Amino acid sequence: MTVSRFIALAAFAALAGCSAQDAASTGSPTAQTPSSRHSESGLEVIPLTITQGGKVHRFMVEVARSEEEQAKGLMFRKQMGADEGMIFPRRPPDFASFWMRNTVIPLDIIFIGTDGKILNIAANTVPYSLDPQTSDGIASAVLELNGGRAAELGIEPGAKVEW
After folding, report:
1. What whole-number distance in Å separates Cα of residue 95 and Cα of residue 76?
2. How far apart are the first and last CA of the chain?
3. Cα dist. 51→44, 63, 117, 132 in Å?
């Protein structure tokens, strides 16, 4: 997004009397806050929600789009905020397999189906492990959160993920 477009969007939001938080909470894909860049990875950061049992959990996630970005993922990262993560869009959707090579922090690896619902969760994966963590079906994306975060929030297979 260009700086001039960002300024125009910010001015419009201010004139309309709504905050970026109000716009993001509507759930409308066109009402989300403008993206930013992560200070460490340089990747785009976008809002993501997981809805289950009437509860909506909000995260800000880095987007690993390119093959290189996806290969690196969260390797070497020493910390991540409670409501942060990384999303790996799969184009085209396919069976996904992830490992924890060079990954310092435990992660929940969440496999998202083509319908936008969670297929399965590899919970609290072991740092540095080379054991493959695989999807239980065709994945359109994979989401990584801090290890144990999904269980803490009650996120389970079948929950709806939107970004």
Report:
1. 25
2. 17
3. 22, 20, 9, 27
Distance set, CA 137 to CA 91, 113, 115, 142 (Å): 15, 7, 11, 12
SS3 state of residue 7: helix
Domains of the chain (ranges plus CATH)?
1-27 (no CATH), 35-162 (2.60.120.1140)
Predicted confidence (pLDDT) per residue in 5-19, tens digit? 333 333 333 333 333
Residues (pLDDT < 70) of the chain are 1-35
pLDDT tens-digit readout, 92-103: 999 999 999 999
pTM of the predicted protein model: 0.79
Of 123, 162, 129, nearest in space to 145 by CA? 123
Dihedral angle of Cα 144, 146, 148, 154, to the nearest 10 degrees? -70
